[in-house]
Request: fold
Amino acid sequence: MSGQLGLGDFFQKYLQKEPLIINKKVLQEHYIPDVLLHRQQQIELIASMLVPALRNEKPSNVFVYGKPGVGKTACIQYIIGHLEATAKTNGANLKTIYLNCKLRTVANTEYRVMAELARGMGVEVPATGLPTDEVYNKFITVVDQKPQVVILVLDEIDRLIAKAGDEILYNLTRINSSLKNAQVSLIGISNDVRFMENIDPRVKSSLGEEEVIFPPYNAIELKEILERRAAVAFRPNALAEGVLEKAAAVAAREHGDARRALALLKVAGEVAERDNSEKVKAEHIDKAEESIEKDRVMDIISSQPKQSQLVLHAILLTTTGRKMETGEVFEKYKDLCIHAGQSPLTQRRISDLIGELDMLGIINAKVISKGRYGRTREIYVSISDELLSKIKVKLQEEL
DNA sequence: AGGTATTCACATGAAACTATTCTCTGAGTTAGG
DNA sequence: TAACTCAGAGAATAGTTTCATGTGAATACCTGT
Reply:
């Protein structure tokens, strides 16, 4: 495009062209459809467990397992929504609080969970400054004001326990004994199936009263889910033959993750629009996959603290010989620190940071023993060269 | 040859420390009656 | 005397440091054949 006329033309064209995506909302992560396909069984099961709440009786504690993107959260929110609505029309005293424990700043410690729960009940609790049991008391007091059933949904509870220990669960399961009027039930949602194994047995028995397992979707189910959404989200005939199948297949490869399938479809649609393509084609799915991966990595990197970025930079600069060890990276890292005017952290910490980067999937680090020559992490990077150089540039900028 | 014992280079754990942010409390101060 | 200000005590949290202990297997070192 040269000059203003050209640009004006461009905008005109853009406006005249019919968009491929006509309702983006349906493809977004938090959208909950009216009908949840292939989850009828689980929904009925959970609903039957919770139904005593409508008669002001305490439902069992429920535990829900399943890999990411298999509809756990969506189902629970769906059920809870209907349950609350029914309770309202029938005059039952029911209150539900949904809490996602993954969110870093919201609820990944005992204090924050309790504070958030108390807020859910309508008490203002400061972000810091109070003793934890004070918050417990506040929560108990509000809950116990009147006879009611309170259902607490703790999503991604495994993360919470990993960070903050299982004391919270113990306290929450015992909370009923300090309540006179109200009753509290717990719904735990976990991605990790083996989560229960290393938990205080006292908690285990009371929390795991009922368990529901969400199996992954298979490719066919995923395709049906996508079909349903695509019909609303895209203009008619916007999808080329085989696009849905492809998206479903890609997502099915990764433990049947519907969230991922939808993201793929959405990004593919956006890519296709940008390409001025008539339809969304299978190749757009490939591009979408790349783009999603790139965004993911870039997001993670920029949200990382400086020291961690330095470590990553050190790794990328050392990586010429394909794989390296903790010691090497640490040396390089110290160099970089001096260069950047930062005081270097201990090797102990660097070891942890490398572990974190590994968990985030940006690098691969595996502990190996080299016998006589010690034990260390073998670190390597498996990112396309193109992305790699982009990351390097980005790190240069940030540091 | 076969079997132990060493040894390396970190990994992994636990505890303690630091800095920051925030509440609460009570002493001291101020202004108005 | 009521209202206000302000410093200090306590808490929670993230990010580290310090100290201590663990560890897998390639070598070094025996041993008896």
About this structure: Chain A is about 50% helix and 10% strand. The mean pLDDT of chain A is 86. Residues 40-214 of chain A form a domain with the Rossmann fold fold (CATH 3.40.50.300). Residues 7 and 13 of chain A are 10 Å apart (CA to CA).
